[in-house]
Each structure stands twice: as C-alpha cells, then as structure tokens.
C-alpha cells in the first residue's frame, strides 16, 4: 500500500466543492488499512484548508468487522473537521444493510444512493440549499441590537449587538456569569430586555412571549433540561409537534378519523428524529429515569421536533464524557447539514466551539468583548485575558 | 350616621377575630412555607380542649373556683396543643419537606380532617361553653356625641385588645430574637437553612406550637362568643381571604386584612345585601380575595411571588 | 407467565398507538365492561345498586373530571362541588323551562353551562397557582353555594334552594328502577371515559401534562398556557356538570345546594389523591374507596367493638371515618403520591414478570 494508490482514489472537484473518495472494490481487513487511507484523506483535506462536500463510492467495498468501529470513527471525524455534507453511492442493498448493521448504528443511514448520478443530484440540492441560506442575507436572519437587560440593580447584559447568518453554526462563549444564558433567554422571549431590539427573519421587536418565539421558528434547549418528567420520551418529543397539530378537541375526543391520522403522521416525523438521534431504545421510558446525557438528547429531540429555523442550544455538552460529546457534535453538525437549521449555541468546551462553529461571539460581564471566526477569536488578546489562561 | 359607625365598629371587631385566626396561618407560612389548612381544626381542637377540661377539672380536683379551673384548663390545653404540634411535625410534615405548595396544602387538609375526627372522639361533639369571664353586656358609648350613643360589644373590644397584644409580641419575636430569625430563614429556603445548621424539625415544632397557642387564644375568644361547636372549624375558611388580602407573609397584614374583611362584610351585608337577596357575607370576602388574586396576588403587605425560570 | 408481552411486536405506529396496546389488557377491559353491563345486574340486589353502584358510577365520573384538572393539568381546585351544582341546576332549569326538553339533552346542556362557568372561574389560574389558586376556586364554591340558595330564578322560586325532578324518560324507557339507573349511569361513564382516554393520549393531554410538569418549558415549545389551562377547566367542569346533573336527576331525585357543598369538593379531591392523580383508573379506585369505606366501617366497627365489649355509636363511626380519610390523605401524599393507581400499576408490572423475580 503506497500513497500513490490511495491518492488515486481521492479526487477534488473544485467546481462543485466536492471531494470524491472511491472505496469501490477495496477490502479493509484491519484497523491499519483503514488508518492508511484515512490518513491520506485527512492529509489532503487539511492541505486544502477548506471544507468540502464528500462523495463516497462504496461499490463492492468490504469492511471486516474488526475494522468497522475505526472506519466509522475516522469517517465521523473527517465529516466534523472538514465536511459540509456527504452523499454515498452503493449499488448493492446487501452492502448497505451490512454497513448499517455492522456499524450498529445508523451513522450511514441516509444519503445512500444507488448510482453516482443520483448522489450528485442530491449533492447539488444540498449545495443549493446551503447557498440559499447563506445568500438569504438581505433578509436579516437574527440581529441583536444594543440589547441591555437588568434584574433590579444587577446588569446582566449591557449594550450587546451582533448578527447571525442563516445556515451557520454560531457560538456564544465567555466565562461564567457573563450573561450568555440571559442572552439566549432574551432571544427567545423568556426575558424582556429594557433596551435594544431583536430582529428575527426581518421582524423587529423588543419583546416577545416565548410561545410567540416558538411560532416564529425559534426552538431551544435548556441548561437544566426542562423536560416533562411525568411523560415518556416519545410523548416529550411529541409535545414539540404541538404547533403543527391542527385537530380540535372534539375531533381528538372521538379519535378515529382526522385526529388519529394527524397523530400518526406526526408520530412518523418524530420517529425520524428518534432515529436521527439514536434514542430508539428508550422511547417509552419515562424521562425522569434517564441518565443525564440521554435526557439532553431528548431535550434536543424535542426542540428539533418543532422544525425550527433557529435552534438555541444552552450548553449542550455540559456534563458529558468524550464519547457523548462527539455524538452530540455529530448531531449538531448533521442538524445544520441536513435540515439547514441555523444553530446558536452556548458552550464552554473550547475544542467543541472551534470545531463546530463558523462564528463566535465572546461575552464577559455582560458585554461583548470580541466576535469573529473561531481562529480570530482565539487569538484575540481581550478574549485571552478574560479567560485568564483557561486552556483547552 | 350612628348606625353606620356602629356597623363599622362592629365590623372592626369581628375583623379582629378573623385576624386572630389568620395570624396562625401567617405564622406557619412565614416560618415553614406550609399553608396550614388545619388551622381552623386546630382552633376548634384547642377550644374543645379548653372547654372540656374546664368542665372536667373542677370534677377531678373537687374545686368550685372558676378562675383556678380556667387557669389549669388553659395550661392543660397549651400542653395538648404542644403535643399536637409535635405529632403533626413528626408524623406528617417531616416527610413532606420541599414538596410543592399544593401537596402540602392537601396534606394539611388531611390533617384537618384527622384533628376534627380525633377531637370529636375525645371531647365529644355537642356544643360546649367556655366561660373565662369575658364581659357579655354591650355598652353604650359616646352618648354625648351621638344621640342614643353607639352600641359597642365589650367582649369584642377586649378581644381586639388581646389580638393587638398578640400581634405586637409576635412581631417583636420575629424581628428581634434569634429564633425568629431562624424561623424566617427556614421559610425562605428549607435546604439552605438546613445546610447552615438550623435544626429544621425543632424549628417547625416551635412554629406549630406558637401557632397552636394562637389557635388556643383564638379558640377561647371565639368559643366564648359563639360557643364551642363544629362550625368553629369553618372559621378557618372565613379567615383565608384575610391572609390573601394581607399577604401570607405579613403579620401586620393579617391584622389589616382582617379589619378590612370584617368591615367589608358587615357593610356589604347591611348596604348591599338587601338588593341581592341577603346572605352575601359568605362570599363577599372571597370575591374581594379573588380580585386581589387577579391583580395583586401577594396582597397588601406580602412579598412578591417570584417564579424561577 | 400469562401476562407477558413476549412475541408481541408492533409493526405499525397505529398498533403501538392503541389505547390498550397489550392484547391481554384489551381482553380484560372488554370483559370488565361486559361484566358491568350484563353480569352485575344479574348478581346485585337493589340495596347495593342504590347505596353503592350508582353513587360509585356518578362519583367516578366526577372524579374523572377533577383528575383531568388536578392530576393531568396540575391545577388545584376546591370548587368541584360548585361545578356539579351548576350542572345540576342548569339541567333542572332546562327541563323545567323548556317544553319537551329530553332529559338526556338537559343533562348534557347542564354540563355545557358548567363548562362555561368553569372557564370564567378558571381565569385566576392564569395569574396564580398552588394555594392561591385553591383560594380562588373557593370563591367559586361559595359564590355558587349562595347563588343557588338565594337567587330565586335558579331554583324556580324554591325557598330553600331545593328542587326535584321526575323520573327520566329516555325514548320511552322510563328510568326508575335501580337497575335502570345503574345502566343509564354506566352508559354515561363508559362513553365519557373513552372520550377522556382519547383526549388524554392525544395532543390535548400532552399539552395539559406539559403545563403541569413545567409550564415555562411548555411556553417555549409553543404551548399557550391560557388555552391549555382554560380548556382543562372547561373539560373538567363539563364532566363535573354532567355528573352533578346525574347525581341530582338519577341518584337523588331531589336535592338542595348542600348536596354540592365544599364537603363534596373535598371529597372529590380526596378521591383523586387516594385513587391516583394523573391516572384514569385512579378516579375509579378513589371513588370506589370513598363510597365503600363508610359502608364497610358501618358494618365492621360495631363488630370489632363488640369483640372488646365496646358500644360503638353511629357518631363514633362517622368520626372514625373522618380520621381514616385524613390519615390516608397524609399517608398517600407521603408514601405514594400517585395513589392506588400506582400501586396497581406496580402490581401489574410484577405480574408481567411472574413467576420470575425480575
């Protein structure tokens, strides 16, 4: 195995911003072989310094069971580090199933197409959507202007302004008590700022009720997981579909007919989300019995069920171990990727922030001290001194 | 005009009586965050104890002296209330720490029923007398100012004085003593108070004892006026609007609220009643409370109720 | 061993969505309902019907109403008796003032009026909760107590607020025997329970439970607290109103305001607490308990007293009853806030595993 063989399998198509990887007829017998090709892939990607769509060909590709986990892991990290979206091609359904089953999870569940042409079509759709989101910037997606928030004598937020672009993942960071959660609460209407305005999708307003924010397409998760402890996971997520349910009480009382149809329709949608977040095995469990990490996933699922334009995540990684964090990162990226949801998250883990976000706002003591891309922010002296050398 | 003043004063007096009961509510809520629906039952239980013991003690000791009988009966009743308080804390409240308000409310409802049942089993369910030497005759006052004077009930007057005394001493207790401070800390946050070493159980017993004594005083006064009977426990229900008006956490609020309700009830009955068929006392107080709940739930003097997000 | 789900796989969401997903459950319920309609009338005597079965059915319906509001939506109420009163008197007025009004319609309309009143007196729930809300509902209770006593129009100028109605005639079937009354009320209960089950497992039920569990989070998802709370009051009052009308028309025949006093409100609340909040079966357990306990005590206590040579008076029995109710309330709130229904559910869980320990 030499570099040159592998480099043949990697092709960059600049016009469609895609990297094509040809795994066809390859055999991965062990971990070393997986690493070999992925090292090459990573090297080539890093060299370009930008993000790509991935087009991966799997025809007649055979992956030994010992190599599976590593294969899945390398693919995942390639996506996180360099990806904008992926499509996969495989002619044979058996292989598809084998991939799914061996992976033990649905990592490769979707975006599998029968022919290269179909895959390229889907890729085109994905690119178009991302472009639309990026260019829809004549309509302001989310702009925070001169917002100030006080609780009695305590100034939580002082004169903060920033703007979030559609389709991006943005992050708010800052030391504890900087006002990050308050900022999120202001955006989604839980707190009402004394000064300033929020513009969302072109609508300017100073105050909004939380449920109005919800109808306008803003969903959020909570730091302390505000799940409905008395209900099962499935029911919790179904509450997220509330705004989309139209049948009235009388219809629901009689169940058969429109109410039942609607219920089943939304159930199907919710099951898609459950598949997406890999929580099938706990769907009937009462939420109060779940460990913290899974509860956070259900919280996310419920927010996703609203099919929001803007997803506010309040410390989604808090209290998670490394694997859970990786999973959550993957989910966030996929949400942004597949559904086109704009994400604004609060996070303390610098690694996560740097990997995930396109844009970062830094708060300290209720004021904005920096904003920009992750790299710009990381190098900003104000930010460094605010954190006083907290290293990650 | 004289009639109006009479009604007014009558209302003030009966308001004082409500305040006495309301005080018990406020005390317990202030100190433990528990809304004690059983306060009325406690008043009745205390009054029953007082009444029956003052009957039985002369028999046991063979003395005819009313004063001694009453004094001893009072002491015994106080002890009884302490025991009741201790039992309530031990058997029920201790296990319901930090449950939400509605649960505690329903638990005290259960306790009220238990107290009612036990009280009637031990002391009987007839109407009993309490005779502590309260003057029963009304008196005419201010005859020089108004023709014929104004009719004032001496008993109510003395009751008002006692209530005022009780309020002053309680306010001093809460504000100035360390126990009072501990009580206020507990009311604010059970767990925080525990974590700085305040013995929750003991504090609660103290609170319920104080409430029990208040109930006893209220019971004696009401019982002396109305006779000790079952309907006394419904007095609690009459006193509820008082705490809503005054604020659940305010001792002066209980007094002012009581006065307002007392006056309001009397005036509305006399002046509004005839137009709507009479008997509106029963819900006037509650409607007033309802209005407050819609516009100012914390009452006149209570602390603002904050919901944490 | 018999009650296991092994081998029962649901292949469609529809199958999973059913009210009774386990076939054993379904059969059990069908059998129970069949027994109720057919078996009981054959087995039970008149006294049992009048003293136990009919009150049990009607109070179950009422408890179901209270459970919807308190157990599923988390809004405490001490004014359930008033809702029953409104239903009863409204139905009475419809019967008496509208010529040829069928009794069934009057009863249902009584429920509708009760629902309207419930919405109005439920408005405080938008501002306050917990014990403050309890006080607000007391205002409703006392107001209606007074209204039916003093406002002559409501009671057709009866001086004491007491009214009476003739036997119900339903499409030619005159309901006067205890068996008739039993079947009539059973029909109501079955229909209303099915409706409640449907509402509670659908979107409305989820909204109510969301408000109960964490209403701030609920608003963030887009649930409107006003809509959820007021509909809970409306539906609950509707059930209570119908139950009240049934109580007056079928169980009593003639009644006065005291039949729906605050004691009734407490009684209903107790049923729900003991039986189980947030569980439909809890309403039934609670109602059964409250109806049967006094009768049970009436028989047992004199017997027990006789064993010790004590004379047990009727007064004593009623006192003991009160003591037991109160103690049970406190007991359940401490030990099993979800009442008998939870104990029953736990028992069933164990049954699913039986004879294996886990």
Q: What would you say this structure looks like, in words?
A:
The complex is a heterotrimer of chains A (392), B (309) and C (358). Chain A is of the alpha/beta class. Chain A is 44% helix and 22% strand. In chain A, a hairpin with a 2-residue loop joins strand 11 and strand 12 (203-205). The radius of gyration of chain A is 22 Å and the shape is globular. The model of chain A is unreliable at 102-109 (pLDDT under 50). Chain B has one domain (2-295): Orthogonal Bundle (ABC transporter involved in vitamin B12 uptake, BtuC), CATH 1.10.3470. Chain B contains eleven helices and two strands, in the order ααααββααααααα. In chain B, strands 1-2 form a two-stranded antiparallel ribbon. In chain B, strand 1 and strand 2 (150-153) form a beta hairpin. Chain B is globular and about 65 Å long. Chain C is mainly α. Chain C has a domain at 21-257. In chain C, 73% of the residues lie in helices and 3% in strands. Chain C contains 14 helices and four strands. In chain C, the strands form two sheets. A two-stranded antiparallel ribbon of chain C has the order 1-4. In chain C, strands 2-3 form a two-stranded antiparallel ribbon. In chain C, helix 3 (46-72) packs parallel to helix 7, helix 8 crosses helix 10 and helix 12 crosses helix 14. Chain C starts with 12 loop residues before the first helix and ends in a 5-residue tail after the last helix. Chains in contact: A-C, B-C.
